[in-house]
Design goal:
Length: 298
């Protein structure tokens, strides 16, 4: 593993699953969910692009979030939530989900957006993975801070095309094929800042080759594992704050129509020297909230 570089030449450690060519067993076993079994992983130090300069540009010089999603599968932008502080309550969570849905609808121009579910994560050793029942309808009455999940530290895409299509139909209570287009896009932000550990890193999908992707079954459905390749380009927001949001494209029924990317791989990362320049008193474990949103064009 290469040695870490200075903070001006950012590097980070990211977890990757091993490709089938490096396994000593048939990888098809991972197409059946078994919580006691996981694909072998490796941790690689990679170059990391800092999006801070891009994010801090004047608004007139900043690419709009919709165009970012089309070209690279993720978008970074400023947005101050009016309801983030209220998520420890049922009413506050409901308001935050509604705000998130309206925000995405305005960005992508969908006819409607449905909040499917939410998850809060915390980067501490005692935050254990909790089993979640597979959803059949949009989440209601749930407070995400009551079921903290650990960070997702292995590179992945949340849904494959099969499960993405099914999820969109469940969200709408209608066959997804009856719509012109459906997408799954996640809205991610920290609950506090600056983030100095386990920030979210995004992979430019134009640097991902088919050989770097495999499929796995999870407690929710099916998703993609990502394998390491030196050609990959990863990026993150250095010292991200709660008023700095990330959108992640996870599924698109158009499947590359008009040259748009399919999805954005992502993972929590261990960025070298990431707490530099931050006073020790405000360094804390990363906590975040992610809302999975289904955008529908009638």
């Amino acid at each position: 593993m290469p040695t870490p570089t200075s903070a001006s030449q950012l590097t980070a450690i990211i977890g990757f699953s091993l490709p089938g060519s490096r396994l000593d067993h048939d990888e098809s076993i991972y197409l059946t969910y078994d919580p006691s079994r996981s694909r072998p992983n490796e941790f690689i130090r990679v170059p990391m692009i800092n999006l801070r300069e891009e994010l801090d540009k004047p608004i007139e010089k900043h690419a709009n979030a919709h165009e970012q999603l089309k070209k690279r599968g993720y978008a970074v932008f400023k947005h101050e939530s009016q309801f983030l502080d209220g998520i420890p309550s049922e009413e506050g969570t409901a308001k935050y989900l509604e705000e998130s849905a309206h925000l995405l609808q305005n960005i992508v121009g969908a006819d409607r957006v449905i909040a499917w579910n939410s998850v809060c994560r915390k980067n501490t050793a005692d935050t254990d993975l909790k089993t979640v029942t597979k959803q059949q309808a949009p989440e209601k009455g749930f407070i995400p801070t009551t079921r903290l999940q650990p960070i997702a530290g292995i590179a992945h895409v949340d849904q494959n095309a099969e499960w993405g299509f099914e999820l969109c139909g469940k969200a709408a209570s209608q066959d997804a094929s009856t719509f012109k287009r459906v997408q799954i896009i996640n809205l991610w932000r920290p609950l506090s800042g600056p983030v100095t550990n386990a920030p979210l890193a995004m992979l430019d999908p134009t640097t991902l080759s088919p050989a770097d992707i495999s499929t796995h079954a999870s407690m929710f459905g099916f998703g993609h594992d990502l394998h390491y390749s030196p050609s990959q380009q990863w990026a993150y927001i250095r010292h991200q704050m709660p008023d700095e949001a990330i959108l992640l494209k996870c599924y698109d029924s158009d499947q590359g129509k008009n040259g748009e990317v399919l999805y954005c791989g992502h993972s929590a990362a261990q960025v070298d020297h990431d707490a530099e320049g931050i006073t020790e008193e405000i360094v804390r474990p990363r906590e975040s909230i992610e809302v999975r949103l289904v955008a529908i064009w009638e």
